[in-house]
TrEMBL record:
Xref: PANTHER family: 3-ISOPROPYLMALATE DEHYDROGENASE
EC number from the UniProt entry: 1.1.1.85
Stored InterPro entries: IsoCit/isopropylmalate_DH_CS, IsoPropMal-DH-like_dom, Isopropylmalate_DH
Signal peptide residues on this chain, from the entry's feature table: none
Short name of any one Pfam family annotated for the protein: Iso_dh
Binding site for Mg(2+): 223, 247, 251
Residues reported to bind substrate: 91, 101, 129, 223
Organism in which the protein naturally occurs: Massilia litorea
Residue stretches in coiled coil: none
Localization annotation: Cytoplasm
Protein's name in the database: 3-isopropylmalate dehydrogenase
Length: 357
Protein backbone atom coordinates (compact mmCIF):
# COMPACT_ATOMS: atom_id res chain seq x y z
CA UNK A 1 0.00 0.00 0.00
CA UNK A 2 1.40 3.39 -0.97
CA UNK A 3 2.26 5.71 1.88
CA UNK A 4 1.69 9.43 1.37
CA UNK A 5 3.06 12.09 3.71
CA UNK A 6 0.61 14.99 3.92
CA UNK A 7 2.31 18.25 4.92
CA UNK A 8 -0.28 21.07 4.85
CA UNK A 9 2.01 23.85 6.14
CA UNK A 10 0.65 27.27 7.10
CA UNK A 11 -1.32 30.16 5.53
CA UNK A 12 -3.83 28.71 3.03
CA UNK A 13 -1.87 25.42 3.08
CA UNK A 14 -4.23 23.55 5.45
CA UNK A 15 -7.40 24.71 3.61
CA UNK A 16 -6.26 23.64 0.15
CA UNK A 17 -4.56 20.43 1.29
CA UNK A 18 -7.74 19.29 3.05
CA UNK A 19 -9.58 19.42 -0.29
CA UNK A 20 -6.86 17.40 -2.06
CA UNK A 21 -7.02 14.77 0.68
CA UNK A 22 -10.80 14.51 0.23
CA UNK A 23 -10.29 13.99 -3.50
CA UNK A 24 -7.70 11.25 -2.87
CA UNK A 25 -10.10 9.60 -0.41
CA UNK A 26 -12.88 9.70 -2.99
CA UNK A 27 -10.84 7.64 -5.48
CA UNK A 28 -11.71 4.50 -3.54
CA UNK A 29 -8.05 3.38 -3.36
CA UNK A 30 -6.45 2.43 -0.09
CA UNK A 31 -3.59 4.84 0.52
CA UNK A 32 -1.92 5.19 3.86
CA UNK A 33 -1.95 8.95 4.49
CA UNK A 34 -0.13 10.41 7.45
CA UNK A 35 -0.07 14.10 8.29
CA UNK A 36 2.69 16.20 9.88
CA UNK A 37 3.46 19.86 10.60
CA UNK A 38 5.81 21.83 8.38
CA UNK A 39 6.77 25.48 7.85
CA UNK A 40 5.07 27.88 10.25
CA UNK A 41 2.99 25.00 11.62
CA UNK A 42 6.22 23.07 12.30
CA UNK A 43 7.66 26.05 14.11
CA UNK A 44 4.49 26.55 16.16
CA UNK A 45 4.27 22.89 17.20
CA UNK A 46 7.94 21.88 17.47
CA UNK A 47 10.04 25.06 17.30
CA UNK A 48 11.43 24.23 13.83
CA UNK A 49 10.07 24.63 10.25
CA UNK A 50 11.21 21.11 9.37
CA UNK A 51 10.86 19.07 12.57
CA UNK A 52 12.80 15.80 12.81
CA UNK A 53 9.54 13.78 12.95
CA UNK A 54 8.23 15.47 9.78
CA UNK A 55 11.46 14.79 7.89
CA UNK A 56 11.38 11.16 9.00
CA UNK A 57 7.82 10.75 7.73
CA UNK A 58 8.72 12.39 4.40
CA UNK A 59 11.68 10.04 3.97
CA UNK A 60 9.63 6.92 4.75
CA UNK A 61 6.75 7.85 2.45
CA UNK A 62 6.47 6.97 -1.25
CA UNK A 63 5.46 10.56 -1.99
CA UNK A 64 4.89 13.86 -0.22
CA UNK A 65 1.89 16.12 -0.77
CA UNK A 66 2.85 19.60 0.39
CA UNK A 67 0.52 22.59 0.83
CA UNK A 68 2.32 25.91 1.23
CA UNK A 69 4.40 27.78 3.79
CA UNK A 70 5.33 31.37 4.60
CA UNK A 71 2.60 33.16 6.50
CA UNK A 72 3.41 36.79 7.50
CA UNK A 73 3.39 36.06 11.23
CA UNK A 74 6.71 34.20 10.81
CA UNK A 75 8.41 37.02 8.85
CA UNK A 76 10.36 38.28 11.85
CA UNK A 77 11.97 34.92 12.68
CA UNK A 78 15.69 34.50 11.96
CA UNK A 79 16.37 33.02 8.51
CA UNK A 80 17.08 29.46 9.74
CA UNK A 81 13.65 29.26 11.40
CA UNK A 82 11.62 30.83 8.59
CA UNK A 83 8.95 28.57 7.04
CA UNK A 84 10.62 28.62 3.58
CA UNK A 85 13.59 26.73 5.04
CA UNK A 86 11.33 23.68 5.22
CA UNK A 87 10.97 23.40 1.45
CA UNK A 88 14.70 23.95 0.86
CA UNK A 89 15.49 21.34 3.54
CA UNK A 90 13.07 18.81 2.06
CA UNK A 91 14.49 19.24 -1.46
CA UNK A 92 17.99 18.66 -0.13
CA UNK A 93 17.20 15.78 2.25
CA UNK A 94 15.05 13.94 -0.29
CA UNK A 95 17.49 14.49 -3.17
CA UNK A 96 14.86 16.24 -5.30
CA UNK A 97 16.54 17.67 -8.40
CA UNK A 98 13.87 17.96 -11.09
CA UNK A 99 11.09 20.49 -10.75
CA UNK A 100 8.26 19.85 -13.23
CA UNK A 101 5.78 22.63 -13.79
CA UNK A 102 3.10 22.11 -16.40
CA UNK A 103 1.48 25.30 -17.68
CA UNK A 104 -1.90 24.39 -19.12
CA UNK A 105 -4.59 26.83 -20.13
CA UNK A 106 -8.02 25.30 -19.70
CA UNK A 107 -10.29 26.55 -22.49
CA UNK A 108 -12.86 27.76 -19.93
CA UNK A 109 -10.26 30.13 -18.45
CA UNK A 110 -9.03 31.69 -21.71
CA UNK A 111 -10.41 35.05 -20.59
CA UNK A 112 -8.33 34.97 -17.39
CA UNK A 113 -4.95 35.07 -19.16
CA UNK A 114 -3.18 38.39 -19.59
CA UNK A 115 -2.42 37.42 -23.20
CA UNK A 116 -4.82 37.37 -26.16
CA UNK A 117 -6.91 34.18 -26.35
CA UNK A 118 -5.49 33.23 -29.77
CA UNK A 119 -1.93 33.35 -28.36
CA UNK A 120 -2.65 31.11 -25.37
CA UNK A 121 -5.71 28.99 -26.16
CA UNK A 122 -4.78 25.31 -26.05
CA UNK A 123 -1.48 26.06 -24.26
CA UNK A 124 0.05 22.91 -22.78
CA UNK A 125 3.75 23.16 -22.00
CA UNK A 126 5.99 21.60 -19.37
CA UNK A 127 8.86 23.51 -17.81
CA UNK A 128 11.55 21.39 -16.17
CA UNK A 129 13.82 23.30 -13.81
CA UNK A 130 17.01 21.82 -12.37
CA UNK A 131 16.97 22.32 -8.59
CA UNK A 132 20.34 21.42 -7.06
CA UNK A 133 23.01 23.30 -9.00
CA UNK A 134 23.69 26.66 -10.64
CA UNK A 135 24.53 29.99 -9.07
CA UNK A 136 22.05 29.37 -6.22
CA UNK A 137 24.34 26.92 -4.45
CA UNK A 138 27.81 27.39 -6.02
CA UNK A 139 30.70 28.29 -3.73
CA UNK A 140 32.63 30.47 -3.10
CA UNK A 141 30.16 33.27 -2.58
CA UNK A 142 29.98 36.32 -0.39
CA UNK A 143 31.12 39.93 -0.13
CA UNK A 144 34.86 40.67 -0.37
CA UNK A 145 37.34 43.29 -1.42
CA UNK A 146 37.30 43.64 -5.21
CA UNK A 147 40.70 42.32 -6.44
CA UNK A 148 40.98 44.11 -9.81
CA UNK A 149 39.44 46.41 -12.42
CA UNK A 150 38.12 49.97 -12.05
CA UNK A 151 36.48 49.17 -8.70
CA UNK A 152 39.58 47.55 -7.18
CA UNK A 153 39.66 47.86 -3.39
CA UNK A 154 35.90 48.46 -3.03
CA UNK A 155 33.57 45.83 -1.65
CA UNK A 156 31.98 43.45 -4.19
CA UNK A 157 29.32 40.76 -3.99
CA UNK A 158 30.03 37.49 -5.82
CA UNK A 159 28.50 34.06 -6.44
CA UNK A 160 29.70 31.05 -8.39
CA UNK A 161 27.81 29.35 -11.22
CA UNK A 162 28.52 25.61 -11.45
CA UNK A 163 27.00 22.56 -13.05
CA UNK A 164 28.47 19.07 -12.73
CA UNK A 165 28.24 16.77 -15.76
CA UNK A 166 26.14 14.20 -13.89
CA UNK A 167 23.81 16.95 -12.70
CA UNK A 168 23.15 18.03 -16.30
CA UNK A 169 22.84 14.47 -17.58
CA UNK A 170 20.16 13.43 -15.10
CA UNK A 171 17.94 16.47 -15.73
CA UNK A 172 18.36 16.02 -19.51
CA UNK A 173 17.16 12.41 -19.17
CA UNK A 174 14.09 13.58 -17.24
CA UNK A 175 13.30 16.09 -20.00
CA UNK A 176 13.69 13.64 -22.90
CA UNK A 177 11.67 10.97 -21.11
CA UNK A 178 8.89 13.45 -20.33
CA UNK A 179 8.87 14.60 -23.96
CA UNK A 180 8.45 11.00 -25.13
CA UNK A 181 5.10 10.92 -23.36
CA UNK A 182 4.07 14.26 -24.91
CA UNK A 183 4.81 15.96 -28.24
CA UNK A 184 8.43 14.66 -28.44
CA UNK A 185 10.09 18.08 -28.51
CA UNK A 186 12.59 19.52 -26.01
CA UNK A 187 13.89 23.08 -25.92
CA UNK A 188 17.01 23.38 -23.78
CA UNK A 189 17.39 26.95 -22.54
CA UNK A 190 20.87 28.28 -21.76
CA UNK A 191 23.21 31.25 -22.15
CA UNK A 192 25.95 29.39 -24.01
CA UNK A 193 27.04 32.51 -25.88
CA UNK A 194 28.23 34.17 -22.66
CA UNK A 195 28.61 31.58 -19.88
CA UNK A 196 31.11 28.69 -19.84
CA UNK A 197 28.80 26.76 -17.53
CA UNK A 198 26.01 26.91 -20.07
CA UNK A 199 28.20 26.05 -23.09
CA UNK A 200 29.04 22.93 -21.08
CA UNK A 201 25.31 22.45 -20.37
CA UNK A 202 24.58 22.65 -24.11
CA UNK A 203 27.30 20.12 -24.97
CA UNK A 204 26.09 17.59 -22.38
CA UNK A 205 22.41 17.93 -23.31
CA UNK A 206 23.41 17.37 -26.96
CA UNK A 207 25.28 14.22 -25.93
CA UNK A 208 22.37 12.82 -23.87
CA UNK A 209 20.08 13.51 -26.84
CA UNK A 210 21.92 10.77 -28.82
CA UNK A 211 19.93 8.26 -26.74
CA UNK A 212 16.63 9.91 -27.68
CA UNK A 213 16.68 10.29 -31.46
CA UNK A 214 12.87 10.05 -31.53
CA UNK A 215 12.71 13.38 -29.65
CA UNK A 216 13.54 16.68 -31.38
CA UNK A 217 16.03 18.89 -29.52
CA UNK A 218 16.37 22.63 -29.96
CA UNK A 219 18.73 24.95 -28.04
CA UNK A 220 17.63 28.48 -27.23
CA UNK A 221 19.26 31.40 -25.40
CA UNK A 222 17.36 32.44 -22.30
CA UNK A 223 16.69 36.00 -23.46
CA UNK A 224 15.09 34.71 -26.66
CA UNK A 225 13.17 32.08 -24.65
CA UNK A 226 11.69 34.81 -22.44
CA UNK A 227 10.56 36.65 -25.56
CA UNK A 228 9.13 33.54 -27.25
CA UNK A 229 7.22 32.58 -24.09
CA UNK A 230 5.08 35.69 -24.37
CA UNK A 231 5.13 35.93 -28.18
CA UNK A 232 4.23 32.35 -29.15
CA UNK A 233 4.19 30.11 -26.07
CA UNK A 234 2.37 27.28 -27.84
CA UNK A 235 5.48 26.61 -29.96
CA UNK A 236 7.09 24.94 -26.93
CA UNK A 237 6.46 21.42 -25.67
CA UNK A 238 9.06 20.63 -22.96
CA UNK A 239 11.49 23.31 -21.80
CA UNK A 240 14.49 22.17 -19.74
CA UNK A 241 16.78 24.66 -18.05
CA UNK A 242 18.97 25.45 -15.05
CA UNK A 243 17.94 26.54 -11.60
CA UNK A 244 17.98 30.32 -12.06
CA UNK A 245 16.58 30.55 -15.59
CA UNK A 246 13.93 27.99 -14.62
CA UNK A 247 12.89 29.98 -11.58
CA UNK A 248 12.21 33.04 -13.70
CA UNK A 249 10.76 31.40 -16.82
CA UNK A 250 8.41 29.14 -14.87
CA UNK A 251 6.86 32.12 -13.06
CA UNK A 252 6.41 33.93 -16.39
CA UNK A 253 4.80 30.82 -17.90
CA UNK A 254 2.53 30.51 -14.87
CA UNK A 255 0.94 33.86 -15.60
CA UNK A 256 0.04 32.83 -19.16
CA UNK A 257 -2.54 30.49 -17.70
CA UNK A 258 -4.51 33.10 -15.80
CA UNK A 259 -4.20 32.12 -12.16
CA UNK A 260 -1.40 30.79 -10.05
CA UNK A 261 -4.19 28.99 -8.18
CA UNK A 262 -4.43 26.49 -11.06
CA UNK A 263 -0.80 25.38 -11.34
CA UNK A 264 0.54 22.17 -9.84
CA UNK A 265 4.18 21.10 -9.58
CA UNK A 266 6.32 18.05 -8.92
CA UNK A 267 9.86 17.83 -7.56
CA UNK A 268 11.40 14.44 -8.30
CA UNK A 269 14.42 12.44 -7.17
CA UNK A 270 16.29 9.81 -9.21
CA UNK A 271 13.73 7.09 -8.40
CA UNK A 272 10.56 9.05 -9.12
CA UNK A 273 9.88 9.60 -5.46
CA UNK A 274 8.64 13.12 -5.27
CA UNK A 275 7.23 16.09 -3.48
CA UNK A 276 4.06 17.56 -4.99
CA UNK A 277 2.82 21.05 -4.27
CA UNK A 278 0.93 23.93 -5.85
CA UNK A 279 3.22 26.48 -7.56
CA UNK A 280 1.87 29.26 -5.39
CA UNK A 281 2.81 30.24 -1.85
CA UNK A 282 0.84 30.47 1.39
CA UNK A 283 -1.22 33.49 0.24
CA UNK A 284 -1.34 35.13 3.70
CA UNK A 285 -3.64 37.86 2.31
CA UNK A 286 -6.50 35.37 1.92
CA UNK A 287 -5.60 32.70 4.50
CA UNK A 288 -8.44 31.55 6.75
CA UNK A 289 -11.14 33.10 4.55
CA UNK A 290 -12.10 29.89 2.78
CA UNK A 291 -11.74 31.47 -0.67
CA UNK A 292 -8.41 30.02 -1.90
CA UNK A 293 -8.42 27.94 -5.07
CA UNK A 294 -7.66 24.30 -4.16
CA UNK A 295 -7.31 23.13 -7.78
CA UNK A 296 -3.51 23.56 -7.99
CA UNK A 297 -3.15 21.26 -4.97
CA UNK A 298 -5.71 18.78 -6.31
CA UNK A 299 -3.86 18.72 -9.65
CA UNK A 300 -0.59 18.23 -7.74
CA UNK A 301 -2.15 15.13 -6.17
CA UNK A 302 -2.90 13.91 -9.71
CA UNK A 303 0.75 14.43 -10.68
CA UNK A 304 1.72 12.44 -7.58
CA UNK A 305 -0.44 9.52 -8.66
CA UNK A 306 1.06 9.62 -12.14
CA UNK A 307 4.77 10.10 -11.39
CA UNK A 308 5.37 8.48 -8.00
CA UNK A 309 2.55 6.02 -7.36
CA UNK A 310 2.03 4.56 -10.84
CA UNK A 311 -1.73 5.20 -10.78
CA UNK A 312 -2.13 6.71 -14.22
CA UNK A 313 -5.82 6.01 -14.55
CA UNK A 314 -6.60 7.64 -11.20
CA UNK A 315 -4.51 10.67 -12.19
CA UNK A 316 -6.57 10.99 -15.38
CA UNK A 317 -9.78 10.71 -13.36
CA UNK A 318 -8.82 13.67 -11.17
CA UNK A 319 -7.79 15.82 -14.13
CA UNK A 320 -11.05 15.02 -15.91
CA UNK A 321 -13.01 15.92 -12.77
CA UNK A 322 -11.25 19.31 -12.63
CA UNK A 323 -12.17 19.96 -16.27
CA UNK A 324 -15.75 19.01 -15.44
CA UNK A 325 -16.12 21.52 -12.60
CA UNK A 326 -14.66 24.27 -14.79
CA UNK A 327 -17.16 23.36 -17.53
CA UNK A 328 -19.90 23.56 -14.90
CA UNK A 329 -18.92 27.20 -14.44
CA UNK A 330 -17.70 26.87 -10.86
CA UNK A 331 -15.00 29.41 -9.94
CA UNK A 332 -13.13 30.42 -6.82
CA UNK A 333 -12.55 34.17 -6.45
CA UNK A 334 -9.17 34.18 -8.28
CA UNK A 335 -10.73 32.88 -11.54
CA UNK A 336 -14.21 34.34 -11.16
CA UNK A 337 -15.67 36.15 -14.18
CA UNK A 338 -19.15 37.46 -14.95
CA UNK A 339 -21.47 34.62 -15.91
CA UNK A 340 -19.75 32.04 -13.72
CA UNK A 341 -20.64 30.82 -10.24
CA UNK A 342 -18.43 31.87 -7.35
CA UNK A 343 -17.66 29.06 -4.89
CA UNK A 344 -15.60 28.65 -1.72
CA UNK A 345 -12.53 26.45 -1.28
CA UNK A 346 -14.65 23.72 0.27
CA UNK A 347 -17.42 23.96 -2.33
CA UNK A 348 -14.79 23.56 -5.04
CA UNK A 349 -13.53 20.45 -3.26
CA UNK A 350 -17.12 19.16 -3.00
CA UNK A 351 -17.63 19.67 -6.73
CA UNK A 352 -14.46 17.79 -7.69
CA UNK A 353 -15.42 14.90 -5.40
CA UNK A 354 -18.89 14.79 -7.02
CA UNK A 355 -17.41 14.93 -10.52
CA UNK A 356 -15.20 11.92 -9.68
CA UNK A 357 -18.19 9.71 -9.03
P1 LIG B 1 1.65 33.66 -3.13
O1 LIG B 1 1.67 32.68 -4.23
O2 LIG B 1 1.44 33.15 -1.77
O3 LIG B 1 0.52 34.76 -3.41
C1 LIG B 1 0.56 35.61 -4.56
C2 LIG B 1 -0.86 36.11 -4.86
O4 LIG B 1 -1.62 35.03 -5.41
C3 LIG B 1 -1.63 36.56 -3.61
O5 LIG B 1 -2.44 37.66 -3.92
C4 LIG B 1 -2.47 35.36 -3.26
O6 LIG B 1 -3.66 35.68 -2.57
C5 LIG B 1 -2.74 34.76 -4.62
N1 LIG B 1 -2.89 33.30 -4.53
C6 LIG B 1 -1.90 32.38 -4.31
N2 LIG B 1 -2.39 31.15 -4.26
C7 LIG B 1 -3.72 31.26 -4.44
C8 LIG B 1 -4.80 30.32 -4.48
N3 LIG B 1 -4.62 29.00 -4.33
N4 LIG B 1 -6.05 30.79 -4.68
C9 LIG B 1 -6.27 32.09 -4.85
N5 LIG B 1 -5.30 33.03 -4.82
C10 LIG B 1 -4.05 32.62 -4.62
O7 LIG B 1 3.03 34.45 -3.23
P2 LIG B 1 3.64 35.59 -2.28
O8 LIG B 1 2.57 36.51 -1.83
O9 LIG B 1 4.79 36.10 -3.04
O10 LIG B 1 4.22 34.81 -1.03
C11 LIG B 1 3.53 34.60 0.20
C12 LIG B 1 4.36 33.71 1.08
O11 LIG B 1 4.46 32.40 0.50
C13 LIG B 1 5.80 34.19 1.24
O12 LIG B 1 6.19 34.00 2.59
C14 LIG B 1 6.60 33.29 0.32
O13 LIG B 1 7.93 33.12 0.75
C15 LIG B 1 5.82 32.00 0.43
N6 LIG B 1 5.99 31.09 -0.72
C16 LIG B 1 5.98 29.75 -0.43
C17 LIG B 1 6.08 28.82 -1.44
C18 LIG B 1 5.98 27.39 -1.07
O14 LIG B 1 5.37 27.03 -0.07
N7 LIG B 1 6.55 26.48 -1.85
C19 LIG B 1 6.24 29.23 -2.84
C20 LIG B 1 6.16 30.66 -3.06
C21 LIG B 1 6.06 31.55 -2.01
MG1 LIG C 1 9.98 31.56 -8.20
Amino acid sequence: MSKIAILPGDGIGPEITAQAVRVLDALGESFEMEQAEVGGAGYAAHGHPLPESTLKLAKQADAVLFGAVGDYQYDTLERALRPEQAILGLRKELGLFANLRPAILYPELAGASTLKPEVVSGLDILIIRELTGDIYFGKPRGVRECPDGPFKGQREGFDTMRYAEGEIRRIAHVAFQAARKRDKRVTSVDKANVLETFQFWRDIVTDVHKEYQDVALEHMYVDNAAMQLVRAPKKFDVIVTGNMFGDILSDAAAMLTGSIGMLPSASLDANNKGLYEPSHGSAPDIAGKGIANPLATILSAAMMLRFSLGKLEQADRIETAVKTVLKQGLRTADIFEDGTQRVSTEQMGDAVVRALR
